[in-house]
Amino acid sequence: MKQSSKWLLIVLAIALVIIPLVFIEGEYGGADDAAGDVIEENNPDYEPWFDSIFEPKSGEIESLLFALQAAIGAIVIGYFFGYYKGKKSVKEPARK
């Protein structure tokens, strides 16, 4: 791949992230919050079966923990892909 093609892909990826954040108005929220709101609308008497074991003190801490969880998962998956790719590329010694 040419060097100019790599830069074009990087700029395109950045634009795909920036454009929606700048030009699209709306509230960004998680799927859990949206599902909870729909349940509250459809059945106001709904009682959850159990409560959370751990409730972070703020949304920032919750976001940090979520990002940390995603990073750990990416590291584990990347390690195994790299391990098996490296294992596959190592050639066995010739037998006599």
What does this protein structure show overall?
The chain has 96 residues and is mostly helical. Helix content is 67%, strand content 0%. The protein contains three helices and no strands. The protein has helices at 3-23, 31-42, 59-89. The model has no long low-confidence stretch (mean pLDDT 84).
Question: What descriptors fit this protein?
Answer:
96 residues; mainly alpha; 67% helix
Computed over alpha carbons, the radius of gyration is 23 Å
Overall 3D shape: flat
Helicity, as a percent range? 55-70%
Note the run of SSEs as H and E.
Answer: HHH
> Structural class, from helix and strand content?
mainly alpha
DSSP helical segment count: 3
End-to-end gap: 41 Å
Work out the oligomeric state of the chains in this entry. Answer: single chain
Mean of all residue-level pLDDT scores:
84
Give me the secondary-structure topology.
Blueprint: H1 3-23, H2 31-42, H3 59-89
Quick structural summary:
It is built from three helices and no strands.
